[in-house]
Amino acid sequence: MAEEKKIPVTNEGMGNPLSAKNQVLTAGAAVTQEFRPVKHICAHLNAFHAYADDPSRFVETNHYCAHLTDEDVRQCLLYDSDEPNARLIGIEYMITPKLYETLDKEERKLWHSHVYEVKSGMLIMPNRAVPESAWQVAENYEMNQVVQLYGKVYHLWQTDRGDTLPLGEPKLMTSFTADGQFDFEKHVGERDRKFGTDWRVKKEARKDIPSPAVHEGEYEWVDEGLR
User: Fold this and answer.
1) End-to-end CA distance of the chain
2) Which of 135, 128, 116 has its CA nearest to residue 209?
3) Which single residue of 86, 118, 121, 211 could bond 203 by disulfide (Cβ 3.0 to 4.6 Å)?
4) Does 8 fall in a domain?
5) Is 57 within 8 Å of 51 (Cβ atoms)?
6) Number of alpha helices (DSSP H) and beta strands (DSSP E) in the chain
């Protein structure tokens, strides 16, 4: 890493800005190639992930998710923003309770519930085109599904510590599960101002979304990971 200071940083990653040649290649690829896996993405979600081994560290994360099966499995690409130059920082898989219950105890420790993310108003589907009141109907439909799912998340790029490359081993991430685990109003409030949303409004709008029972193994792991 002795030469790191000599290498420019572009879009918070090491390297030169995109050249005219690569801009042309990028534009051409959009016309000539299909990118079918990416076109299968059906939802953009935003929430915060905490490091499982150090929950005092957390990262705002944009999820771009697709259904692998009708209901049971989703897979998400995770980015540090919703901009074209966003850094790919991780992956998340989401599964239904019936699949979660097939996992052994050790495997279950790698998964987290989405109940608090949904019910607190933290988890959102960013939208810049449709009036918020109308969008809330579509978002609540999505939240009714996600609240039941378990997620397994690994981040590959520790952007919160300023890394300009994805360094080290993948980090298991988790979800916040209760009030008081981080400064919710500050950090979620800052996120809301960026997207023009309000977690308080969403929390109220979701009060009738049922909270599914979370498996005991999940609570055990949360206690170990967040205390």
Assistant:
1) 35
2) 116
3) 121
4) no
5) yes
6) 9, 9
